[in-house]
Design a protein that fits this description.
The chain is α+β, with helices and mostly antiparallel strands. It has two domains: about 100 residues, no CATH class; about 100 residues, no CATH class. About 45% of the residues lie in helices and about 10% in strands. The strands form two sheets. A four-stranded antiparallel sheet has the order 1-2-3-4. Strands 5-6 form a two-stranded antiparallel sheet. Helix 3 packs parallel to helix 5 and helix 4 runs antiparallel to helix 5.
């Protein structure tokens, strides 16, 4: 099972439309989950989420009395929402500044602009790709984990159209940490074989002509 890197999650979250709090209808803030266990001993399940920091929110404003009366503690609640869902939950805070240290609004805006600029530059580079050199450029971008996800997905598409047979081996050996990229890379390999009328020997994994009967590398007999 593949997992997204923290950078990939941030890229996805920062480009999402921020949800409105279920209790006050105010736009929620992007919040970085701290490295700590919660409740059942597990983590937050995501490195970033949306949190309402509106002090006038009724959940937060009324939460102090609710927790004091029921649990005898000084605390309240903030509304949270997990990225890509409409699941609103509550997290406990133990003072007015609780959780504020993980708000990444200013950083998020700066990084959003940076990501958008990198996406624009990457897509422009790929649009200019042509011929074998274009395939080499697409392969380089696809293999670069620092490139934005959207650019790497486009690179896989270009690679399938322009890539040479020698691009198959690095694609096969690359462990992509994302299901989408892994799928797009596999599709690029299939497209490269289709364009070059090739396939991989099931015994030695070397590339041979699709209509070959004997592998020229290991000498084994090939079936259709």
């Amino acid at each position: 099972m593949a997992f997204e890197t923290k950078e990939e999650v941030f890229e996805r979250v920062i480009l999402q439309k921020r949800p409105l709090c279920k209790y006050c209808q105010q736009e929620m803030s992007i919040w970085e989950a701290p490295d700590m266990v919660i409740d059942d001993g597990l983590g937050w399940g995501t490195p970033y989420m949306f949190v309402c920091f509106n002090d006038a929110c009724r959940l937060y404003a009324q939460g102090w009395d609710n927790i004091r009366e029921n649990y005898g503690r000084t605390a309240s609640y903030r509304c949270i929402c997990y990225p890509g869902t409409e699941n609103f939950e509550c997290m406990s805070v133990y003072g007015p500044q609780g959780g504020h240290g993980q708000i990444i609004e200013e950083e998020a805006l700066a990084r959003q602009k940076e990501i958008e600029a990198r996406i624009g530059k990457g897509l422009s580079t790929l649009e200019a790709c042509a011929g074998e050199s274009g395939g080499e450029t697409a392969l380089r971008i696809l293999m670069d984990a620092d490139e934005p996800m959207r650019v790497r997905v486009k690179a896989a598409e270009i690679l399938g159209e322009l890539g040479r047979s020698d691009a198959v081996e690095p694609l096969k050996n690359k462990k992509f940490g994302n299901d989408i990229l892994r799928k797009r890379a596999a599709e690029a390999v299939d497209r490269i074989h289709e364009r070059h009328f090739t396939r991989e020997c099931p015994f030695c994994a070397e590339i041979v002509k699709k209509r070959a009967k004997i592998c020229k590398h290991c000498g084994r007999e090939l079936t259709e």
